[in-house]
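Retro notes (design track)

What went well: tokenization of the new backbones is finally stable.
What didn't: we kept losing track of which sequence belonged to which structure.
Fix going forward: every design gets posted as structure first, then sequence, in one message. First example under the new rule, 362 residues:
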């Protein structure tokens, strides 16, 4: 057994990134899948799956319709599970290898294997049986009802059993006792409807001083957090749930879409002058995530903060205006004089400094 787990660990490391295992949620063929790493009996796993929802679609233990889908599930599970989680999902029939529950069962009538999502039969008989209706199957030398009460479908995550490994290989199916606690995969007939928008800062915008990060995030599964990253570094979780009647009107089918706004102040003066990257990431209660990236530019005065006691004088400054911009010449701010260009921004409903030119004379 230890040798098998070592082999499986090697596979996991080959499929995963060096530092982080794959996410528990993956997609294939327009469907969404979620790996549940807490072992459960087949009946409990099936009940738990039915209680889950994604975008209004109820979950069910994974149904496998093709060899490519079977491979996609196997690879995702192997990339996600740790060695400890694999060891906690062993069959108790002598296979001595980890398995995961799929949505097939013959508990209603022995040898009549049906999918739990709609009751469609896909196999008739034991390992000498035949597929039904041309549906895909991937049994090892199975099903064999070896322990006398093996009514639930599982996918093997390694070759079994020792020492000959002649009953099945990784990815093939086995019938197991449904009371065996195993990891399982829940399938949803659809994709997440999570959506995210960033209203401010605007792409390519120029910012200084104290500004806002704001926008909206919605999902049929409650939005749990909205995170802010600047130049790849986490900054903070931004408050969300603010009134956004415009979003509610645009997405009336999503509950609470009218309470989807997020906003927080950000100190652009704490950033160095030049180009920066903002990433907003939203996560819902299902675990789906979505990101938006905005590149912006920061400009600054010589001082990072203009105090109330600092000089601020426009009395001797000149001014011109053209279109949406106003240019102020010779403004005294702190210990320096500047030419400033301000531009009207519709999304913020105000003027914002887009150019700061420090003058060389006092």
């Amino acid at each position: 057994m230890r040798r098998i787990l070592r082999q499986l660990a090697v596979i996991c490391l080959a499929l995963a990134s060096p530092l982080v295992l794959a996410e528990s949620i993956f997609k294939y063929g327009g469907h969404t899948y979620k790996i549940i790493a807490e072992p459960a009996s087949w009946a409990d796993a099936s009940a738990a799956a039915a209680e889950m929802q994604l975008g209004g679609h109820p979950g069910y233990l994974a149904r496998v319709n093709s060899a490519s889908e079977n491979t996609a599930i196997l690879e995702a599970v192997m990339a996600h599970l740790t060695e400890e989680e694999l060891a906690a999902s062993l069959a108790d029939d002598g296979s001595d290898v980890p398995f995961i529950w799929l949505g097939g069962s013959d508990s209603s009538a022995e040898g009549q294997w049906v999918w739990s999502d709609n009751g469609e039969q896909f196999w008739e008989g034991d390992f000498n049986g035949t597929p039904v209706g041309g549906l895909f199957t991937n049994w090892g030398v199975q099903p064999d009802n070896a322990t006398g009460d093996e009514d639930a479908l599982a996918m093997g995550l390694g070759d079994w059993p020792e020492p000959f490994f002649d009953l099945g290989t990784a990815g093939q199916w086995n019938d197991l006792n449904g009371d065996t606690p195993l990891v399982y995969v829940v399938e949803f007939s659809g994709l997440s409807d999570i959506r995210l928008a960033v209203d401010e800062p605007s792409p390519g915008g120029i910012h200084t001083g104290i500004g806002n990060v704001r926008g909206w995030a919605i999902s049929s599964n409650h939005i749990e957090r909205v995170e802010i990253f600047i130049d790849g570094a986490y900054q903070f979780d931004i408050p969300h749930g603010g009134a956004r009647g415009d979003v509610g009107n645009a997405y009336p089918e999503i509950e609470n879409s009218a309470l989807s706004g997020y906003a927080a102040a950000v100190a652009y003066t704490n950033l160095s002058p030049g180009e920066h990257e903002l990433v907003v990431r939203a996560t819902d209660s299902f675990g789906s995530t979505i990101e938006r990236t905005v590149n912006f530019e920061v400009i600054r005065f010589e001082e990072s903060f203009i105090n109330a006691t600092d000089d601020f004088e426009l009395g001797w400054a000149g001014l011109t205006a053209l279109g949406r911009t106003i240019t102020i010449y010779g403004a005294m701010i702190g210990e320096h004089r500047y030419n400033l260009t301000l531009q009207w921004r519709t999304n913020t409903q105000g003027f914002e400094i887009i150019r700061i030119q420090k003058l060389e004379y006092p």
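Added context from the reviewer: Residues 9 and 174 are 22 Å apart (CA to CA).
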